[in-house]
Design a protein that fits this description.
Blueprint: H1 3-21, H2 28-38, H3 50-74, E1 77-86, E2 92-102, E3 105-115, H4 121-133, H5 139-142, E4 151-157, H6 161-164, H7 170-177, E5 182-185, H8 187-199, H9 203-220, H10 223-236, H11 251-276, H12 282-294, H13 297-320, H14 327-346, H15 352-360, E6 361-362, E7 367-368, E8 372-373, H16 387-403, H17 427-432, H18 435-444, H19 451-468, H20 475-485, H21 494-502, H22 508-520, H23 530-542, H24 553-561, E9 566-569, E10 572-575, H25 594-600
């Protein structure tokens, strides 16, 4: 392949990458090439079809995977993250990620999305094994401490019994083969469920949500009503924002946005409903009914309570969805949010919105904010004695405590000993601190360490305490640097640190991948093959985020040497065994021009 042909192939690969990274249909490939032709870019005459795009995307995907697969083989430990969903073709899809430590940081690698034959525990486990095999990783070797290579130490799933069941669930089947594997229920999901448990049976909140959803549908389904609402807002010079739905997925984040939108638009909504209610249409009768509920002390009080409670929970939920989350961080975040909730209960005046409610509410004349005339009795409100407010806070704290108790149990609680910010300061106490916890970790993971390693780990821990006792860096940054540099004096003990970094507390990355899958495999592309789907998702997940950062040379090398079939250059076919002479990687630099990038973007 001469330089001219190579330049043409390179441009085709860049175009294929653009198609895949944006989740566009493969049929768009030919259209983009026509555009390049139109602006004078020389791209040749071969591979200008869907099949060509598919082959290039496959090569790009495989070249991306090779780096991850090499790093996984060098890691000591791995965790499996898995979650299920139904795609546009009504197929049960299971996504599998592998978490490991590379260059001092935890990495989550997208192994595959696998179609399940059965949505049972056996079917899901078979799907996980298939995803691993697609990356030349043996499940049997991962759970066998007698074989060389990385060992499975944790499995992170959602809370469904088919996944987390101790007896017949996927987690139970894995732990029977490798008892030291720690099953972890996704902490972001746990938090959502804790809140949902707490609000069950709270009638004011149930009524609030019913009314709110009706308001959303009222405006969402009627452009005319949205226009009228905007006009009312402009006439009375009141604030207005888009009223969003309360979604089932990511309940906390969507709920917070929704109640904030309602608070901002409250005056406009009430004024519009009062205008609509004067008519004689079906909408008028609905507006009258909603006004009777909205213009009450209970509804507005509930709104302002949620405005203070939900941001505290949403903040923790967002922390739990970060890729660098450690198991030691979970307990700290949970304790922090429960302290904030308890403070809000004991000192309601510390809540910005609770204080605002008390300032705006006038029980004497039955008004709110001076202009909203309330319906019904306008009783005095004391949040310290308010039954709904206290029940809500107590319920959230209770169920969070219950659902997160596993992080206060063996073996996860033992990793807390690595948090040097809580180490004692005096020498005598520090010298013996954490020895029992290290022994407990070594006992739990005993098949993974030799007797010599166990002895060295204990000795190196003592040295590490002297090294870190005055460390000012964050726990994550400090241990990340040590894992990257691997100093000889802590070389064996860092296996314990690597264990902590490898255990995944959250499957948020699986949810994000399903969002990408729904973009790629839509109702208009429901027949997309599983191979093409996986290749595109790999590029979307692990490929460069900018077109200018994509270097196609490794993918071209994979295409010429690693993919099956015939290569067509210079207008004729060359079989893969014909020995294509490829000027890769040092003969010349990538020649993709800025003009081409501009045309594609």
């Amino acid at each position: 392949m001469d330089k001219k042909n190579y330049d043409q192939i390179e441009k085709l690969f860049v175009t294929a990458f653009l198609i895949a990274s944006k989740g566009k249909p493969l049929s768009d490939f030919a259209m983009h090439l026509d555009l390049l032709d139109r602006v004078g870019v020389d791209i040749g005459h071969n591979y200008r079809n869907i099949d060509g795009a598919s082959k290039f995307i496959q090569a790009i995907s495989h070249s991306l995977k090779k780096d991850f697969q090499s790093d996984i083989n060098e890691a000591n430990y791995v965790s499996i993250l898995s979650d299920g969903s139904t795609d546009s073709a009504i197929l049960e899809q299971e996504t599998v990620f592998i978490r490991y430590v590379s260059h001092g940081v935890p990495v989550s690698f997208h192994a595959a999305v696998v179609t399940l034959n059965h949505a049972t525990a056996d079917g899901v486990l078979d799907g996980i094994k298939t995803a691993l095999e697609m990356n030349d990783i043996s499940y049997e070797k991962l759970v066998s401490h007698d074989c060389e290579g990385p060992k499975l130490v944790s499995a992170n799933f959602d809370g469904a019994s088919v996944m987390m069941g101790n007896r017949s669930g996927v987690a139970g089947k894995i732990t029977r083969e490798a008892p030291y594997v720690v099953p972890v229920h996704c902490v972001a999901h746990k938090l959502e469920l804790s809140v949902l448990d707490a609000v069950k049976g709270l009638l004011p909140l149930k009524n609030f949500e019913e009314v709110f959803k009706q308001i959303f549908k009222f405006y969402h389904n009627s452009p005319k009503m949205r226009r009228e609402l905007k006009t009312i807002s402009q006439i009375f010079e009141t604030d207005l924002v888009h009223l969003s739905d309360v979604k089932n997925v990511r309940w906390l984040a969507s709920k917070e946005r929704a109640v904030r939108a309602l608070r901002t638009s409250l005056h406009s909504v009430i004024q519009h409903f009062e205008t609509v209610a004067t008519g004689r249409t079906e909408q008028s009768s609905k507006a009258k009914g909603w006004l009777a509920k909205i213009k009450t002390v209970t509804f507005i009080k509930t709104l302002f309570i949620l405005l203070d409670v939900l941001p505290l929970l949403t903040e923790v939920s967002l922390v739990f969805q970060k890729e660098d989350l450690l198991v030691t961080t979970v307990s700290q975040e949970i304790e922090g949010v429960m302290l904030k909730l308890t403070q809000l209960k004991v000192q309601p005046e510390t809540g910005e919105n609770l204080k605002a409610f008390m300032d705006l509410y006038s029980p004497q004349d039955g008004t709110f904010d001076g202009v909203i005339q309330l319906i019904g009795q306008s009783k005095h409100v004391n949040f310290k004695q308010d039954m709904f407010f206290n029940s809500l806070i107590d319920g959230i704290v209770k169920y969070i405590d219950k659902r997160f108790e596993c992080f206060s149990q063996a073996p996860l609680k033992y990793f807390k000993v690595l948090d040097y910010t809580e180490w004692p300061t005096d020498r005598c106490s520090l010298s013996v601190y954490g020895c029992e916890e290290i022994d407990a970790l070594l006992e739990h993971y005993h098949p993974l360490f030799t007797d010599e390693e166990k002895t060295r780990i204990k000795d190196e821990f003592t040295t590490l305490k002297g090294y870190l006792k005055n460390c000012k860096k964050t726990v994550y940054d400090c241990y990340s640097n040590l894992l990257f540099s691997r100093p000889q004096c802590f070389k064996v003990f860092l296996k314990i640190v690597e264990l902590m970094f490898t255990i995944s507390p959250c499957t948020a990355i699986c949810e994000r991948l399903f969002s990408s899958m729904n973009l790629v495999k839509s109702s208009h592309r429901s027949v997309l093959s599983q191979d093409n789907l996986n290749n595109i998702l790999t590029i979307m997940t692990h490929g460069p985020k900018s077109l200018k950062d994509f270097d196609p040379r490794s993918a071209i090398k994979e295409w010429t040497t690693g993919c099956k079939g015939t290569r067509h250059v210079k207008g004729h076919g060359l079989h893969e065994q014909a020995g294509i002479s490829l000027p890769y990687p040092h003969c010349f630099k990538s020649t993709t021009s800025p003009e081409m990038h501009k045309a594609l973007e």
